[in-house]
Amino acid sequence: MTETAKTLATVLVALGTLTAPARAQQTVGLPPPDSTVADAFPAQMHYSPYAGRNFPTNVYWGDTHLHTGMSMDAGAFGARLTPQDAYRFALGEELTSSTGLQVKLSRPLDFLVVADHSDNMGFFPRLFAGDPAMLADSTGKRWYGMIQEGGRTAVQVAVEVIVAFSQGTFPEALASLPGSSAYRSAWEETIEAAEMYNDPGRFTAFIGYEWTSNTAGNNLHRVVIYRDGGEKADVMEPLTTLRPAGSDNPRDLWNWMQTFEDRTGGQVLALAHNGNLSNGIMFPMLDTFTGRRFDRAYAETRAKWEPLYEVTQIKGDGEAHPFLSPTDEFADYETWDAGNLDLSVPKENDMLQYEYARQGLQIGLQLERQLGVNPYKFGMVGSTDSHTGLATAEEENFFGKHSGAEPSPERYEHPMAKVGDLTYESWSMVGSGYAAVWARENTREALFDAMMRRETYATTGPRMMVRFFGGWEFTEEDAMSRLPGAIGYMKGVPMGADLPARPAGAAPTFLVGALKDPLSGNLDRIQIVKGWVDSRGERHEKIYDVAWSDGRTPGPDGKLPPVGNTVDVARATWTNTIGDPELITVWTDPDFDPSVPAVYYARVLEIPTPRWTAYEAYRYGITMPSEVPMITQERAYTSPIWYTP
Amino acid sequence: MSLQRVVSVVLLAAAVVSAPARAQDPVPPPETLEGAFPAQRHFSPYAGRNFPTQVFWGDTHLHTALSMDAGAFGNRLGLDEAYRFAKGEEVTSATGQPVKLSRPLDWLVVSDHSDNMGFFPDLFAGSPGILANPTGKRWYEMIQAGGQQAVAAALEIIDMVSRGEVPEELIYAPGSAPYRSAWESTIKAAERHNDPGRFTAFIGYEWTSLVPPGNNLHRVVIYRDGGEKAIQTEPFTMLPPAGSVNPEDLWAVLQAYEDRTGGRLLAIAHNGNLSNGMMFPLVNPVTDRPLTREYAETRIRWEPLYEVTQIKGDGEAHPFLSPDDEFADYENWDKGNLNLSELKTPEMLQYEYARSALQLGLQVEGRVGVNPYKFGMIGSTDSHTSLATADEENFFGKHSGTEPDAMRWEHPVLAMGDVKIMGWEQVSSGYAAVWATENTREAIFDAMMRRETYATTGPRMMVRFFGGWEFTAEDAMNRLPGAIGYMKGVPMGADLPARPAAGGAPTFLVGALKDPYSGNLDRIQIVKGWVDARGERHEKVYDVAWSDGRTPGADGKLPPVGNTVDVARATWTNTIGDPELITVWTDPDFDPNLRAVYYARVLEIPTPRWTAYDAKRYGIEMSEEVPMWTQERAYTSPIWYTPGQ
Q1: Cβ contact (<8 Å) for A581 and B44?
Q2: Partner-chain contact A619 B462, CB within 8 Å
Q3: Closest Cα to residue B221, out of B209, B213, B212, B210?
């Protein structure tokens, strides 16, 4: 058969398949073409390696989770920046922070989701502006007067507001509740800011909000992101958690999302974060709200609405925990495991397995065996969850969790938050993270669709470029090309996808590569983390070093020696004299068992670089206590690739 | 500097400025002004930086179908295609091949030849003016017939142009209606594609001085201005009676334009290697007398930059002139002048290459008091395909007859009798890098005027080069060399500040970051040129920073970095070399009494040359003389030292 004939045969087979239900009619109106149409199918292999590439070739960097002064807590902690300010900052403009510091990103971001808390959205800006409706209320008037006074008196307002809100004594006349005109204005302001800064092809401003389920202090927060513009987002107001209008049950959020889509024809997704502060209810085996086993509908619904998980952010890194992964020497990374969000219940070890992404992925495989659907089939992103209006995730430019924790010589020694005797130390804040999205263009539609197919990865701040493909026939040679994308999509599936059906006798192969962030540290290694469930239903994990720098040789225990450390803490600097600028390899699972389900993702480690605390110590000339870490090893986590027998 | 001192400096400055109006305003007490001068040191390292922090990449020298020769060689791509391609869009080349850049450029100068601009597109379109002439009609019919007839028409046209036998009605000369429309099209296309802050489309043209018998003195002219000024005059040509081949006549025309419009222009020469000793003369070939002060002043007024590398040969250095420089023999074209009508003789070379020209400039300055050759460096393509390609893996050649195909390497691009320059000798080079504060015509043009630019042979490495008297090793440890560089010294393209009374030798802060997609870095060198007390020229090349911890040999030479190129597969690995190099270097041989000029050369590790990609993609074997790998590089603009300044 000639090449042309083969191509045509393929086309005809495809047409046959497509038109199968109408086989008795004429195929597609015309009789099948003959070889005279060969010229209509020119070969698509071009000399220019960049021509004709229809797969995603760009990584777009953004933050899916940023708060402004519109969020009640952010406003209470002093954030005065608006959603518009937040977009301008993400676009690379210089701003003055709420504490009066000049601040600018080293490089602009490509997209941003302003995700203010839906409950009481817009309260503080109204109070600050002396909104007449507020001044009409006696408490409102008193608070406004105190705010005008400034200083400690104004801080007292913040304390009163938060206490009143959490104790349910918040004056109803002042509350910003869905359905009220105050709430509508806040939501419209959010939408308008996004519409103003959304610039298709150049910068994507997503409409979004955070649904802040926090019953008993256990964090089940979700950020909701809209694919749509204001004309749809404006149709319904966000879901809140306060009853009666709101709910703290994720199932009600999913119902709200379904209603939104039914009503508007729009599209939304949700992503959870801070399982580490959920005290064992983020990725549960049993329904937390009923105590019963999940049904298939739960799994289907959760998987439908929650394609991604925010795996790293300021309040702790959520990939892995050393208790769960005792042989993983990199698992204890910026771990926050004292308790739940408000520290009202201390952490117990048996909660941890339901909190971290690595176990969540394995529990998903277990539930899939029971229910037939994997509820925890999520991809990875990082984001800041910053409450300053400033999406900073770089160590040398870290503006903290909230405006009370913006840079100052004292911030490291002040608690970031305090509940009774328990505190979150400011120095434990994590300068993390960003979301990386592989897409074809920088638009709401293209980025949202990439999120839905989980073609994303998380980083703790640096912008390394990471490719991860799975398939059955990658060979060593494929890692030698300088354009892994072309081979990756041709022979396999990208991060976030399912392995194609297994050819007889094969083990899965993975093409994985990373390019360093030009302005950050060199690369130490690429690892592949495998999770699986054995025939008895037990969870397992194993970490493979698959590519590493400096020609190191693993020791007799199979462990790769550490890459070394060039950090000069006193000067808050380092040299890229260790590590490699790029790593790439093809890896075949040596322990593959075709009869059990498995999940694979890549973790990319940088060489050690100064942590934000080191920059702070250097710039302010201060010495921090020895417990404060001064060095970090930044990293990326890709979305997984799944194997199902 | 204390606040007190800042205030007194400001007041001093104010006094100077207001001297003619001394009675105007009384000076307020300094202490009342303190609040108006807040400190400018910010926590955010990216805030408050007013110096150039971005490199903008572009091509100052690209031809479209509007150029007579480009059209004759088959280019049918016009102005819009050239800009769209530079902006990163996929286009179809004149030979029907889809092509796209790996990354967009930031700016572009379309510089079509001013003589006969726009003739070929009109011939192809069968414009009534051309068809009205019997010869024009015959040519049109031959072009319509296509194939060999069309080629014969093109050859006939080129031949008649070179012999000055084109019928007058078919000559596109300034003042004629069709010429005016060609120039208007050029301007309108630039206006259409200029997008301040995002993409800069410069208005420009090439003045194509070919001094008999064929010595290249071409200049590209670039406008800072928009169409409203550029349209007021037409480009300068070289054909008599309106035109001239004497650069002094070009400068007069540039001056007349500025006088008339209040606009700004600059000119950039290229291919001294094809000038047969006329590009950087000591004796003015027009007057046959030594260069005068007026010549020097005028030339340097208009020509701040030199295009040091492009497809028709690299012009930094020549091995005959720099026998100790093992990297000087890089992609040299030294067989003769532009049309090979006169062969090269060794004594011509010193007047052709940038390195010796910088030294000639010092000699002339010693004699007349002004340096006519005080130029900065840029690279550009001079491609005639409308496609600004300079990457080895995506090289579309000099003109449409040398676009990718299996035979292009073995066909001559230039031939005169037995003397030939073969297709494989084309250089896939280069691009212009400009340090500027924003991507606008004004900011980039102004950076060109102050020579804050560098040339690369294609890759986009980021290079900083600062000179001063007090840089210390510590300054190279900072990850933001720009901040220290501008504070303590001057950037590439500038004069060293006055030497401190305490004496000392000049110090240089020089650093480079690799192009993330290209090869690692081998080394940074500083090339010093000077003129001794007897007026003799000298040069020395210093290795100042290098990869892999190598130790120079007994002869002081650094061992080669190695070579990982796999020619058969047209690939390499970044397992040698470093991703970044930075150092502070002090001239160990400094003589404060002698004029000197310093520039940096940055070398990549060996990577495949475009010929290797052709060989692999077409499955062909080229003859042994064809180089298959290259060592790409960057040349910075120099920093000058003048005694007593």
Answers
A1: no
A2: no
A3: B209
